[in-house]
Amino acid sequence: MKIFNTLTRSKDEFVPIKEGEAKIYACGPTVYNYIHIGNARPLCVFDVLRRYLEWRGYKVNFVQNFTDIDDKLIKKANEENITVPEVAERFIGEFWTDAKGLNVREATVHPRATENIEQIIEIISSLIENGYAYTAGGDVYYRAKKFRDYGKLSHQPLEELEAGASERVDSGDIKEDPMDFCLWKGAKPGEPYWESPFGKGRPGWHIECSAMACRYLGKTIDIHCGGLDLIFPHHENEIAQSEAANGCEFAHYWMHNGFINVDNHKMSKSLNNFFTVRDVAEKFGYEPIRYFLISSQYRSPINYSVEIIEQAKNSLERLYNCRDNIDFALKNAGEGGEIPDFIEQRRQEFIDAMEDDLNTADALAAIFMLVRDINTAISEGAGKTAVEAFADIFDQLTGVLGLVYNRKTEALDSEIEELIEKRTQARKTKDFKTADEIRDKLKKMGIILEDTPQGVKWSRI
To answer: With contact defined as beta carbons under 8 Å apart, do 234 and 27 qualify?
Structure first.
């Protein structure tokens, strides 16, 4: 498999640290509000990455964190006159409602920052000891310029990074250098804090992920994932902290998904085009959102609009119709029948797309070619052996993308079943007048019939 590695700016062959295993860290949400559709893209994209690697036989250790201590949580807690842990618990619960609605599988581990304070303090102490960090005014800062490779992920010259950092410094800043970033924030009145060798306080944002990745995956991991907006400063700082503390490469591959625009404009609250997953799901359901988020290659920017979500719903309907056709054929197909060559062809096209930097757009194209082939084969009277193969390959490929997960089996009441059976018998005896009358009666009852080589297929109007 080839992965576009932000670190090298090229598609690199994926070679895991340990053969047959993949250690992946994905940055999770800061749990102070509902997740928005921008947050949902990396959730769905890297869920697909994990599913694909597992389908290909890898043992995947997938870690995704919750940031449950942060300025935003403290602000939210103060606004609602509740505690920070109460804010975190509430929105972790809301996160799971949305994640499960999107069919995002639970990670191997979902660590919280507050559960890893000991590990965070240990790394900070190490960085102070080896000269990469210093205390100032109750805070602890990282000396960015001491890390010679600083900027290697964002590929920005140090001078440009320094100029940007200088603009963000206020007159009361106590850092040695504008580039330095905070590892530990000294306690302020009324804020949560933990005891540490450098005083009461709480962790900075970047150090949390370094500590959790190291604790659950080791000092060097295979793949680190996140949104494009995290490259700098978050991921750049993670590298600097982790590699200075551990003396080895932090992550071999860095994958970053592109942004989401809304009606061709950047999503922002000020433009009033800011949508949470919950907002969109209440109107369209969760599965069209997932389909939309993986329908383009993950590094490309994508544009959200009502029309595009409607298109996603229509595409999903084609997939569900095909699966219904397979179910119907499984009940009615004759025994035997050869397995068509197109199954292996479409499977290989799907694999080729996914191996090319997780190209889900081309993978979906292969699935829809498979749908066309399956529908044609069933209409031509494919035997049971072939139809069983259709079900297997369809479920495998859609399962890798996490789609078609809302299948429902609906039973007819006995009156309708009896009418369908009477019509079938009338057709066998060439009593077409009675057959047509029954068809019309069923239509008034909201049932449409379709005569196929395998028998009568029904659907609701």
So the answer is: yes
